[in-house]
Amino acid sequence: MKTTIELPDDLFLKAKILAAERRVTLKDIMVQALNLFTQSAPEAEEKKRKVALKRLLKGMKASNTEPMTPLKREEIYDR
Predict the structure, then answer these.
(1) Could you tell me the pTM of the whole model?
(2) If we measure between CA atoms, which residue out of 46, 47, 14, 48 comes closest to residue 33?
(3) Boundaries of every domain in the chain
(4) pLDDT of 42-79, one tens digit each?
(5) CA–CA distance, 8 with 10 (Å, rounded to integer)
């Protein structure tokens, strides 16, 4: 797909120089950069989600973690 974007002059020059040093096109540099950017974003979100989930589970943990013992019939009807 073709598109037009505006880049700061210094960033454009850095990308153009990098492309020349690597002997690839500016398009290749842009595609590689966007691939890296889009791949690391989900990983960061996944890490944030895991941290939030751990915090939530820790907050939900009861202070008394001993297993419950089943009540006997007499104990149930005494109440």
Answers:
(1) 0.50
(2) 14
(3) 9-60
(4) 777 888 888 888 888 887 776 666 777 888 888 888 76
(5) 6
The tokens for 63 are 């202070």
Nearest to 15 by CA among 5, 6, 4, 27: 27
Distances (CA, A) of 60 to 20, 63, 69, 74: 56, 9, 21, 32
Could you tell me the two tokens for 58?
């820790």
Residues 76, 79: Cα–Cα separation, whole Å: 6
Spatial separation of the C-alpha atoms in residues 2 and 11, rounded to whole Å:
20
